[in-house]
Amino acid sequence: MSTEDYPIEVEFPDISVHEQSASGIAYVHTFDSGAPGPHVMINALTHGNEVCGAIVVDELLRRGLRPRCGRLTLAFANVAAYRRFDPANPDAARFVDQDFNRVWTAAVLDDTSRTSSELTRARAMRPVIDSVDALLDLHSMHEKSQPLIVAGPLKKGIDLAVRLGTPATVICDEGHPEGRRMRNYEGFGDPASPKNALLIECGQHWERSAVAVARDTTARFLLLSGVIDEADLPAGWIAPLPPAQHIVRVTQPVVATSMDFRFAAPYRGLEIFAEAGAVIGWSNGEPVVTPYDNCMLVMPSLRQLRPGVTVVRLGRVEQTVTNA
């Protein structure tokens, strides 16, 4: 599938006005209410071409949103990649040197022999993220798929996703072989820690509806955390909840070992194959098959194809939760 299939329906905001911040970290704004409460963070631009989160964070900063208790951080992460965005080659702005969302282990961040644009930025943001209690990381997807929550493998992440109530699909997984995501970093990925995080895949990168999902989930996350009141939010951000949420447990990633990988059909994501053994693609000429009945494809895409990249995850629905 080519990028021409996905028109750019949204305006990319000029975020240069947000570069200077009291935190001393460019594009990372922390506001302290002075009253007890959690430190809540809304993060955008983990990937430079995922604009829906940037639109939301830009809107909240321009609105002057402040927490009524605790602290609130509003951040743009991979600004260097965002600045490289070219509508003629929109997928190229995902990152500069490496995926910003695959560097989040203490060992990697501490290893000063390793350098990249993304590691430099992650190291600069790390002191703030180390102090965050609740993180919402706003993303979008290569292909036009229904929005979903990436809740991580732990019960606390699933419970938070269910409390949020939307989107309708909750993905529980261990992450990527290529490296750890921010939402799994340190306390977020520790079952003994009260820290928690969610990653929202709001829709296809440049579709208008992804912005609506980003606004809705951000509004609900902030209200759930208790740091703001509903009157503090822009009108119309909160959308109706889906009737139910489906909890999907990812059992395994399918990782490309070379550039010779192709899917059997133009999958968009959340397709379910009723019987084990269904051929979903070919890797180095060998068939890739579903390992069990009722196998779901999670975020299939070849747009970032290279050896070591997860091209799809395989999972199954393990629970359905009805929204009251």
Describe the protein.
There is one protein chain. 45% of the residues are buried. Helices cover 20% and strands 26% of the residues. It is built from 6 helices and 14 strands. The model has no long low-confidence stretch (mean pLDDT 94). It holds the Pfam family AstE_AspA_cat. InterPro entries: AspA/AstE_fam, AstE_AspA_cat.
- Rg is 19 Å
Mean pLDDT: 94
- The CATH superfamily of the largest domain bears the name Zn peptidases
Identify the strand order in the major beta sheet: 1-3-2-4-7-5-6-8-14-13-10
Oligomer: single chain
Shape, principal axes of CA atoms:
globular
Total strands? 14
> What is the correct CATH architecture of the largest domain?
3-Layer(aba) Sandwich
Tally of structural domains: 2
Secondary-structure element series:
EEHEHHHEEHEEHEEEEEEE
Report how far the terminal alpha carbons are from each other: 39 Å
CATH topology group of the largest domain? Aminopeptidase
How many helices does DSSP assign?
A: 6
Strand content: 25-35%
Helical percentage: 10-25%
